[in-house]
Amino acid sequence: MTDSLFERYKDALKRGRPKDALTSYAEAASLVSHRSLPHTSMGSVLLKMGRRADALAAYERACELAPGDAGAHAGRAAALTELKRLAEAAGASDEAARLRVADHERRMAEESDARAAVSGRGPELLVADAEDLLEAGHQEAAVARLVAAADGFIAAGQPDAALDACAQGLAIAPGSPAVHLAMIRAYLARGWNDMAVERLVLLDRLLTLDPDPVWREAHVRACRDNSALDARLAAFATAHGAAVHGAGSTA
Question: Within a domain: residue 83?
Fold first, then answer.
């Protein structure tokens, strides 16, 4: 997604022009036709405009593209509720809840597995583990190992090696908040505060495009902890902190 399109997203939503926002999301859907997020966003705008049937169609397209997207199923439930199709809405809501629980359990298992792998082993071995896991097709597990390796290198006073591990993680999953946060920790350990700030700004953009309450909470904490470095970080913490607190955390 281009910078100009992202800015159009933000401008349309900030100014409260749903028709303009809808146009931006439709254009995004045409640019990244394989992604569910633009369709989910279109559904949200259409629902606010009272176009319930069109909203349902957008959410259902999002569910087709990403059957495991809890947000798409939750949006579908909302549209079905507005259409008074309550039995279907209950099913969609149950599916959204099931997917959220499954996603949380998967994340916890990956983090636990990565922490267990750290015990008694050096970060170099975790990098080797990640390479083996990647070769076997386990991308998410490989990324978790690389994040654990980066933190191990940081603890050992080797931030450059940590950054190398993060670079490998980004090559696998460019949008991974876990990797971006690890890279921020490595930048701070290296003393590259300006680069850490810019990475936090980038992560704010990523989480605006692909919202995730767990990673948003981690982003808010990092912004709050480093707010003295840049006024933008304090603004992010203030802007998103209340919403995160209200939603609660499953971390």
Answer: yes
Which pair of tokens denotes residue 4? 């100009």
Quick one: residue 248, left, alpha or beta (phi over 0 = left, psi -120 to 50 = alpha)?
left
Structure tokens at 197: 């700030």
pLDDT digits (tens, 9 = 90+) for 45-83: 899 899 999 999 999 999 999 898 888 999 999 999 999
Cα–Cα distance measured from residue 1 to residue 8, given in angstroms and rounded to the nearest whole number: 11
Domain of residue 73, CATH code: 1.25.40.10
- CA 154-105-221 angle, to 5 degrees, is 45
Q: What is the pLDDT of residues 131-145, one digit of tens each?
A: 998 988 888 889 988
Overall number of domains in the chain:
1
Q: Where are the alpha helices (DSSP H) in the chain?
A: 3-14, 18-31, 37-48, 52-65, 70-82, 86-118, 123-135, 139-155, 159-172, 177-190, 193-209, 213-225, 231-247
Residue pointed to by tokens 């912004």 = 223
d(Cα 114, Cα 123) in Å, to the nearest integer? 11
Q: How much is the pLDDT for 7? A: 58
The reported pTM is 0.61
b/e 82-102 (16+ beta carbons within 10 angstroms → b)? beebeeebeebbebbeebbee
Q: Give the residue numbers spanning the domain of 98.
A: 3-102
The amino acid at residue 72 is A
Confidence band for 251, pLDDT divided at 50, 70 and 90 = very low
